[in-house]
Amino acid sequence: MKHHDITASNRAAWDEAAPLHRAHNQADLLARFAEPGHSELDEVETAVLTRLGVVGKDVAQLCCNNGRELISVRNLGARRCVGFEGAAGFVEQARELNAAAGLDCAFMLGDVYEIPTAYDEQFDVVTVTIGVLNWMPDVDKFFAVAARLLRPGGALFIYEQHPIMDMVEPGAAGDPVAWNYPYFRQGPRVYTEGLDYFGGTTYEAKPVYEIQHTLSAVIMAGVKAGLGLSDFAEYPHHISNTWYNVERQGPQLPMCYTLVMEKI
Ligand SMILES: C[S@@+](CC[C@H](N)C(=O)[O-])C[C@H]1O[C@@H](n2cnc3c(N)ncnc32)[C@H](O)[C@@H]1O
Q: Which domains does the chain have, with CATH numbers?
């Protein structure tokens, strides 16, 4: 299957999911962002970004969904903030949240692989968080996009679920931890249950294609894009909206990681 067809099918699935996520989340988020300085970032994300230093910096977020993290980064003191997102419904939600916060973040609609060159070397920090890399059919090309957006000396910050999680069938807290997939899986995992991981409704959705990238493939994609490793950590806590089965059962797995790579 061509990469373009994978991203097109996934975009259609995200377009379907956007109104469902809105129904579940938007009213609460609008109220929370009306509070000055509100942040939706967790402790780990806040700590790494604070260490990196975002105050007065220009920050881009790739595949930013409803923008809640980028708006939070603006509230941490970042200067220009631009979010890039492929699903129109989420861009609309992000712009509403930004307006509720009285801020000036920009949210651009389009395929992350096709971000215009006008954005090249415009940012000190590029962020990629929680459930993005698994939508990327070409992880090398994705890192190349992130690298070209950075100014020399700028940093790419990734906060992602650990790829070892992709070996286990996702499930609710009591569900068995079923090791159904190899770490070195070839080809995407395809499903049609939809992407309402907030409300939990299932429907006959457009096919979703998730791609597994090993940790070494992720780090080497950064190296190939001209980025140097400056910080890497693995954690035991859960950051996805799935795999609640893994969280409390069996031996402790690494469930997520942070990675910072700097443009040399
Ligand atoms: C699970 S969300 C992660 C974002 C954010 N961290 C969050 O928790 O809301 C993944 C987002 O990536 C976007 N996305 C996936 N593939 C994309 C692409 N090729 N170009 C732009 N956005 C894309 C989807 O539309 C979706 O909003």
A: 3-263 (3.40.50.150)
Nearest-angstrom CA–CA distance, 108 and 23: 22
Report how far residue 40's alpha carbon sits from residue 93's, in angstroms, rounded to the nearest whole number.
15
Which residues' Cβ are closer than 6 Å to ligand 1?
Answer: 7, 10, 14, 63, 65, 69, 85-87, 90, 111-113, 129-132, 135
Chain length of the chain: 264
Dist. CA 11 → ligand 1 center (Å): 9
Q: Closest residue (by CA) to atom 27 of ligand 1?
A: 65
143-188 tens-digit pLDDT: 999 999 999 999 999 999 999 999 998 888 889 899 999 999 988 9
Residue nearest atom 14 in ligand 1 by C-alpha distance: 63
Q: What is the pLDDT of the chain when averaged over all its residues?
A: 94
Q: Which of 31-45, 122-136, 196-210 has the lowest mean pLDDT?
A: 196-210
Query: What span, in angstroms and rounded, lies between the C-alpha atoms of 186 and 212?
Result: 8
